[in-house]
Amino acid sequence: MAGAVLLGLLLTAAALAAPAHAAGVPQPDGYRMSDYRSPTPDGVAGGETADTPAVQALLAQGRTVPVFVQRLERSTLPGGPWLQSKAYRQIPGSVWLPNVGMGAPDPATLAWFESQLERLTGGDRNRDLLFYCLSDCWLSWNAAKRAVLFGYARVHWYPTGIDGWMEAGLPTEEAHPPSPPPAVSPAP
């Protein structure tokens, strides 16, 4: 009897610890616009979902550009810098492109995202791109979907993100975003 109770407790704990993206959350037609830290779908249309071993294999090939998309506040001053109040960790070799996974980024951020992908891939739309954020984070899902719509053919989405990477005990490095996109002028 005690063995059956213990087995039941272990199965319940395993179910609770399972990633939320496995819960069958439907993919929206557009982008997720709010509540970015919530259960995510199983995949992204036009892209490939990757678990930690798949990400390791992609990175070992040396052709994958890992893109960290954690949100970051920005100064409201014209041309203002990112406001980074704490250190963030990323997969080694990643490029941090803040806010490109927002549901409705401003036109300057969209143009900046597209130009950054162009630069990072050398214009090769068949270059592997890996998008990630934190676990249960729609920002990476939105960014991956956006890259697919930009015409990139080899888009990978890592839904457990840096959290899954660190839980696996894999190395990280401190994240540093590049200069932000130009500020959008307020409407008159």
UniProtKB/TrEMBL annotation:
Instruction: Tell me which domain of life the UniProt entry assigns to the organism this sequence originates from.
Output: Bacteria
- Answer whether the UniProt record assigns the keyword Manganese to this protein: no
InterPro entries under this entry? PQQ_CXXCW, Rhodanese-like_dom, Rhodanese-like_dom_sf
Which Pfam families does the UniProt entry name for this protein? Answer: Rhodanese
Q: Which residues form the signal peptide?
A: 1-22
Q: What are the Rhodanese domain coordinates in residue numbering?
A: 91-174
Membrane-spanning parts: none
Q: Where is this region: Disordered?
A: 27-49, 169-188
User: Which controlled-vocabulary keywords does the entry list?
Assistant: Signal
Instruction: Fetch the Gene3D superfamilies from UniProt.
Output: Rhodanese-like domain
> NCBIfam families, per this entry?
PQQ_CXXCW
Name the record gives this protein: Sulfurtransferase
Q: Which organism is it from?
A: Azospirillum thiophilum
